[in-house]
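Researcher: Checking consistency across runs. Here is Secondary thiamine-phosphate synthase enzyme again:
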Amino acid sequence: MQIHQQMLLLKERKRGFHLITTEVIHALPQLGQIKTGIMQVFIQHTSASLTINENADPTVRRDFEMYFSKTVPENDPDYHHDDEGPDDMPAHLKAALLGSSVMIPIRNGRLALGMWQGIYLCEHRNYGGQRNLIITAWGE
């Protein structure tokens, strides 16, 4: 059994859904040593999240942002937590809905994503800053 772990600092991105698959793969070159295994990607933040979805058409990512902005609006008078501005509590709710990690099978040294799948960084803040990921891969 091999276990590899790497921290990845992502540059600041604007609010929205961003493909980060290539950055994740490049951050863990030992991936190629694992024939069969699992990779977990975990984000160390409460106002950004991770998910897996469409990797080809950028309109999907724009539609994700539109949907979540409508579903979890800013400036709701019922929110109590707004210390960091009107996008603060909605960002926490969106991150809770999508989650803080993704798990991907490893097959023959590569991520076994489907043809049209990619890893998204879901940035829910207007100015979220850099984001920290922990990437862990294990297998044989």
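Researcher: Does this match what you'd expect to see?
Model: One thing to look at in this run: The chain has a mean pLDDT of 97.
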